[in-house]
Amino acid sequence: MKELNSVIVSGKEVLPIIEGGKGIGASNGFSAGAMAAAGGVGTFSGANALTYDENGIPYPAEYKTATRRERHEELVEQGVRGGIQQAQIARDICGGKSPVHINVLWEQGGAERILRGVLEGAKGLISGITCGAGMPYRLGEIATEYNVYYYPIVSSARAFRALWKRGYNKRSELLGGVVYEDPWLAGGHNGLSNSENPLEPQRPYERIVALRAYMDEVGLQHVPIVMAGGVWHLEDFEDWLDNPEIGLITFQFGTRTLLTKESPIPEEWKQKLFDVKEGEVLLHKFSPTGFYSSAVKNGLLNMLIGRSERQVPYSAKPEGDKVVEFPFGRRGRPIYLTAEDKAKTEQYIAAGYDVPMKTPDETIVFVDEEESQKILKSQADCMGCLSHCSFSNWKDYDDFTTGKRADPRSFCIQERLQGAIRGEDLEKQLVFAGHNAYKFGQDPFYKDRFIPTVQQLVDRIMTGK
Fold first, then answer.
1. Can you list the alpha helix ranges (DSSP code H) found in 241-368?
2. Into which CATH architecture does domain 7-281+434-461 fall?
3. For the whole model, what pTM was predicted?
4. Residues 6 or more apart whose Cβ sits within 8 Å of residue 272
5. How far is it, in rounded angstroms, from Cα 123 to Cα 107?
6. How far is CA 185 from the centre of its chain?
7. Can you list the pairs that 410-413 forms with residues at least 24 positions away whose Cβ atoms lie under 8 Å?
8. Could you read off the pLDDT tens digit of each residue along the chain, which spans 465 residues?
9. In terms of DSSP bridges, do strands 281-284 and 324-328 run parallel, antiparallel, or are they unpaired?
10. DSSP letter (8 states) at residue 277
């Protein structure tokens, strides 16, 4: 294999290895500090970052106020405090040897406020901002304000072109890199557009060549592309190295860095990764963000699949072939279905799914009584963790509502991600992972369920494996 050269990232010479951010606590100051100490780039999650007491015990994310808007303010305040503490932990571990980045989801609730608060309170500790899950047009402006590098996450040249023309062209001096995240292979949320088929993956090489061509066109030959999503063995990318079509390249590891000693995910999650089989990571669109995302297929996703399948369209008055009355709600007010769909509802009800719930798309889904109560409680407990949430109809500005009906086909994403990071029943939680997670059970490096330190993983990656 060709020699893996060091690269300049956020103003420092490092190994061509960047830790993926992995939101809601799946990366933190300990994992980021260990990666930076090993010579790579450490990244901690700025989404719901935890704080710790004097004994190192994490404070749980608790909300004591009554309304969504009040709980949202608590969420922002907790996020700022947690982000500052995680940055300090990472710097204490690595001593500034290599850069530490913060990963921010642009569509998280209060994203800009949290990011500014962390950068203000952790001046000199954070070298770069990695940001995706949306189109972060203002990222360059914020980075320039705090004199840190920025790394937008995109899944196409078209997306970067839009960001460049919208504002990055005026803030190019601190553009540290462009992260290309393969939307068919990466874990977590991704950037599949409406014109792309989730069932027809495209090779990353051609898409990165197109991205590099545009970057070269606008004078960004010196800016590296970060390949993310589906990266396992660097020897698989040997023909990318010293390749003029690709240019400067470095690699981001998200899924592989889940399984290290320093990784903050619980032991139950780590052990589950060893047992994931090929094809068991599902690309789906149940997330309340509206984005596609990838997670290990489990009881939660199977439940959401089943819930969505028990769905029929309705109309508020007779029209077309929707002329069969269906009594809806406690008062039994009639809505109208087709005769075929009315027959389906009778089957759902007979199977115990006897509570219909309206969706924003003029359909009704059928759940059982217990599940309906859980949905309603989760919606009522919303703390505004997203800028726009289809599940609870929250948005974090103006009148604080999307103006649409809350969607029972989705779920409270913070509740399920925090359940996973706490190690609760993983069949009921959202377990993000990339589509190559099955390789944990096949790669000889992990024989006998071996869990490496971050340093051991970095040493292994640098061999090409």
1. 267-274, 299-309, 339-350
2. Alpha-Beta Barrel (3.20)
3. 0.94
4. 296, 426, 431
5. 24
6. 13
7. 410/286, 410/287, 410/288, 410/304, 411/286, 411/288, 411/300, 411/304, 411/378, 412/288, 412/378, 412/379, 412/381, 412/382, 413/287, 413/288, 413/289, 413/385, 413/386
8. 788 889 999 999 999 999 998 888 899 999 999 999 999 999 999 998 988 877 777 777 788 898 999 999 999 999 999 999 999 999 999 998 899 999 999 999 999 999 999 999 999 999 999 998 888 999 999 999 999 999 999 999 999 999 999 989 999 999 999 999 999 999 999 888 888 999 899 999 999 999 999 999 999 999 999 999 999 999 999 999 999 999 999 999 999 999 999 999 999 999 999 999 999 999 999 999 999 999 999 999 999 999 999 999 999 999 999 999 999 988 899 999 999 999 999 999 999 999 999 999 999 999 999 999 999 999 999 999 999 999 999 999 999 999 999 999 999 999 999 999 988 999 999 999 999 999 999 999 999 999 999 999 999 999 999
9. unpaired
10. P
Domain-by-domain residue ranges, the chain?
Answer: 7-281+434-461, 299-428
- Tracing tokens 């949290």 back to the chain, one arrives at 114
Give residue for tokens 């050269």: 5
